[in-house]
Specification:
It contains 19 helices and 18 strands. It is α/β, with parallel strands linked by helices. It folds into four domains: 2-119, Rossmann fold (3-Layer(aba) Sandwich); 142-304, 3-Layer(aba) Sandwich (Rossmann fold); 308-382, Helicase, Ruva Protein, domain 3, CATH 1.10.8; 401-445, Arc Repressor Mutant, subunit A (Orthogonal Bundle), CATH 1.10.10.
Length: 448
């Protein structure tokens, strides 16, 4: 059992260190944040006791850094000026416990037993604290608090919103939360993935059509824009919208009217526009693949959603939240995640963001034979060093070029299909092969 004590008062820190040392624990005592982080990097502690009030960096400022540096450790904040509000703030910030100094021997023994006992398996509570929730979004990290604040500010206004973020980071959840907090909450929320609809169909899908407008149009059909009237239309991957349609979409946004294919006159619509992309639209404008006037119309208010690697403080909360959802879907089977397994999760860069985390936890919960997600189950999905077992982190299993070519092809095809939401036409374009060749390879490899 290794214990790290962080307190700027040498007398208090040394006294506490001697007391802990009498309990057969390996104790380190430091007096500031820099020394604490250096000590953690040398030897990961099992239990960290950190004072709240210290010069330069206090316990609340240091807490997220301690969590990142020692994800397995139990972190306890302490203060000689304890109060119920301070204790609640500590727990909400992510501390495992809060103690008022001086700390008695009996309470210290309980802490050491807790860190060494079953709880040291780092069982994740399968819920996120209410203060860490923002509708369906979960997070307490500074980047996510910024996002939550922007949503609250813009939601009441009819302003067009552009959400920027990587694939799997939760852009649709942000759009839904904007809708839910707006005065259109009782109206429809219509999500559209522009990259998932073939170019030949997207105009009819968005604008609708009248009977006889084209072969197969045997009845009138309202488009997705008209269906969103009175509510919010969320256009995901707006950067993939074909140029000819960008002109028509701009006209709809400007005039508040949509003209279905084959219709003699336009239809009035009242739509709140929220769009999203993982692309650099400014670069697309310079390259001539995205209209500048449409970009200016969409980019009135921008929300940048951070990737998971920039909000690692939220990993514990997200994992617990996703496990709770999995237990609700499949039955209460998984209690949490072993410490060694969580270490692997904490070291991973998560190129697929929250969606990748959800997929990994779902597969790991199936692979685990116990009621805990084990390191063995996680290692098969993100690797022993936390590197993804994917096309991005491809490592050959053999020296056979023939065998490894087939394996890499399968990884790339699955990744392309995932990136395009299962759209085979767009996946073939990403893979730079023909649509027919993609279908042949999917059949050959048994990919549905």
């Amino acid at each position: 059992m290794r214990v790290l004590i962080i307190d700027d008062d040498p007398d208090v820190a040394d006294s506490l260190g001697r007391l802990v040392g009498q309990m057969q624990a390996d104790v380190s005592v430091v007096h500031d944040a820099t020394a604490a982080l250096r000590d953690i990097s040398d030897s990961l502690p099992d239990l960290i006791l950190c004072d709240v009030r210290m010069p330069r960096q206090g316990g609340f400022d240091l807490l997220p850094k301690l969590r990142r540096a020692a994800p397995r450790a139990r972190v306890v904040l302490m203060s000689a000026y304890g109060s119920l509000d301070t204790a609640q703030r500590a727990i909400d910030a992510g501390a495992d416990d809060f103690l008022t100094k001086p700390i008695g021997r009996e309470r210290l023994e309980e802490l050491l037993q807790g860190a060494a006992g079953p709880q040291h398996a780092d069982v994740l509570a399968a819920f996120a604290p209410e203060r860490a929730r923002f509708g369906d979004l979960v997070g307490q990290s500074p980047p996510m608090r910024t996002v939550f604040g922007l949503i609250e500010k813009i939601a009441p206004f009819p302003t067009t919103v552009l959400i920027l973020g990587e694939s799997g980071s939760g852009k649709e959840l942000v759009a839904r939360e904007i809708h839910r907090r707006s005065d259109r909450a009782d109206g429809p929320f219509v999500p559209v993935n522009c990259a998932a609809i073939p170019d030949t169909l997207i105009e009819a899908e968005l604008f609708g059509y009248r009977k006889g407008a084209f072969t197969g149009a045997d009845q009138d059909r309202s488009g997705l824009i008209e269906q969103a009237s009175g509510g919010t239309l969320f256009l995901d991957e707006i950067g993939d919208l074909p140029l000819p349609l960008q002109v028509k979409l701009l006209r709809v946004i400007q005039e508040g009217q949509v003209q279905p294919l084959g219709a003699p006159r336009p239809v009035d619509v009242d739509v709140r526009w929220v769009t999203a992309t993982l692309q650099d639209l400014e670069a697309a404008v310079e390259q001539g693949t995205f209209r500048q006037d449409l970009y200016f119309r969409l980019n009135v208010f921008t929300i940048r959603l951070p990737p998971l690697r920039e909000r690692r403080d939220d990993l514990r909360l997200l994992a617990g939240h996703l496990l709770a959802a999995l237990n609700e879907r499949y039955g209460p089977r998984i209690r949490g995640i072993e410490a060694a397994a969580f270490d692997l999760l904490a070291r991973h860069d998560w190129p697929g963001n929250v969606r990748e985390l959800e997929n990994v936890l779902e597969r790991a919960s199936i692979l685990s034979d116990r009621d805990m997600i084990t390191a063995e189950a996680i290692q098969g999905l993100v690797g022993a060093s936390g590197k993804a077992v994917s096309a991005a982190g491809y490592a050959p299993a053999t020296l056979s070029i023939k065998a490894e070519t087939r394996r890499l092809e399968q990884l790339l095809i699955r990744k392309a299909l995932e990136e395009t939401g299962g759209n085979r036409t767009h996946a073939a374009r990403l893979l730079e092969i023909s649509h027919r060749a993609l279908l042949y390879k999917m059949k050959e490899y048994g990919i549905s």
